[in-house]
Amino acid sequence: MHLFTKTLAAMLVLCGIVVGVASAGTLDDVKKKGFLQCGVSQGNPGFSNPDPKGNWTGLDVDLCRAVAVAIFGDPEKVKYTPLSAKERFTALQSGEIDVLSRTTTWTLVRDTALGLNWAGVNYYDGQGFMVPKKLNVKSAKQLNGASVCVAIGTTTELNLADYFRANKMTYKPVTFEKADEVLAAYDTGRCDVFTTDRSSLAAQRTKLKDPEAHLVLPEIISKEPLGPVVRHGDDQWLDVVRWTLYAMLEAEEYGVSSENVDRMKSSSTDPVVRRLLGVEGDMGKSLGLGNEWAYNIVKKVGNYGESYDRNVGPNTPLKLDRGANALWKDGGLQYAMPVR
Ligand SMILES: N[C@@H](CCC(=O)N[C@@H](CS)C(=O)NCC(=O)O)C(=O)O
User: Fold this and answer.
1) Phi and psi angles of residue 42, each rounded to the nearest 5 degrees, phi first
2) Is there a contact between 169 and 213 (Cβ–Cβ < 8 Å)?
3) What is the pTM of this model?
4) Nearest residue CA, atom 17 of ligand 1?
5) Which of 31, 168, 169, 269 lies 20 to 30 A from 290 at CA?
6) Could you tell me the sign of the dihedral formed by the alpha carbons of 250, 253, 254, 259, in that order?
7) Ligand 1 center to residue 85 CA distance, Å?
8) DSSP conformation class of 330
9) Among 305, 151, 129, 292, which residue's Cα sits nearest to residue 219?
10) Contact assessment for residue 198 and residue 220, using Cβ atoms and an 8 Å cutoff
């Protein structure tokens, strides 16, 4: 090896170590400060939304609560930082938040150049369009020349450009930083079309003056795998967030819910359930957590299906079918790695 190559290699190793040390230890930091700082949206019903008293609920919020339960046994040990799409990555990179749980799409550039790691996918989504019914539009292919309301700093903006270019159509973007501004512009007729992830269309639609006066078009123009995000360089923390999500999925797959978890813990003979609930093995210890981490998650937050049904499912205002978010054994994409 040339001296130059050797020196370069040594520098890279050194930098790698420095970067690793600088951003490692999130689990210890969180334990020390006594709460989890979770980055969420500025109000997206079903995913992360504050009630008038400031209590946050949603599928993404349940992930934050579950991480807090895994660490502290207490879902209330979370502080929330509401972030616009544009602000969210800086907040994570700078250490202002410990985890970002905010309908955030996993992409190559974010995963690499932005220095982020996705812990998994808690909602498989895709981008769609909504239009006022009175426009009498039935397909996105009829949108040539339309004005389109869209939030900046999103994959939505990029897919929109791709879709119109690929279909040789033009459009006029009407952009804002805050989701509420995008929606208000659409609701007051400043644009013809509102575009975002289909789950967010369902969520934001509930805030329109007359939700029934609008139609979601059939086209799904992208893949939007949404999930919790952490910084590069802290494998232990990545593991904690990842296995928290898997614990919720594994619990659903094995029929363990907040209602039967105590019974399951005391009487189940299934080795998978016994390991998950800490009756056998050292799963929690391997993660730097107590052995009741997953038992507590299921008991205090619920399994993935319970969280889905409570926040976004058919009996909520969002009315979202499980679709791609069904468990793999039911024909969906949700699949937890084995807890063993
Ligand atoms: N999944 C896309 C878009 C996510 C996104 O932020 N969508 C907006 C559009 S409505 C939203 O949910 N906003 C909620 C908020 O800002 O409170 C991404 O990661 O870029």
Assistant:
1) -95, 15
2) no
3) 0.92
4) 42
5) 269
6) positive
7) 6
8) G
9) 129
10) yes
Question: In whole angstroms, how large is the CA radius of gyration of the chain?
Answer: 22
Residue 237 to residues 108, 130, 315, 335, Cα–Cα distance (Å): 20, 38, 34, 21
Q: Which two tokens stand for residue 245?
A: 């999500």
Residue 182 CA to residue 195 CA, distance in Å, equals 9
**What distance lies between CA 205 and its chain's CA centroid?**
19
Atom of ligand 1 nearest to the CA of 104: 19
pLDDT digits (tens, 9 = 90+) for 38-90: 999 999 999 999 999 999 999 999 999 999 999 999 999 999 999 999 999 99
| CA gap 326, 334 in Å, rounded | 6
pLDDT tens string 262-295 = 999 999 999 999 999 999 999 999 999 999 999 9
Residue 77 to residue 260: CA distance in whole angstroms = 24
Q: Measuring from atom 11 of ligand 1, which residue has the nearest CA?
A: 179
Ligand 1 interacting residues, C-beta cut-off 6 A: 41-44, 84-85, 103-105, 151, 154-156, 178-179, 182, 196-197, 200, 204, 224, 226
Tokens of residue 80, six digits: 């929330």
Q: What Å distances lie between residue 318 and 49, 59, 61, CA to CA?
A: 13, 12, 16
- The three-class DSSP label of residue 114 is coil
Length of the chain: 340
Structure-token pair, residue 189: 């007729």
Element at 185 (helix H, strand E): helix 179-187
The two three-digit tokens of residue 45, written as one number: 């019903």
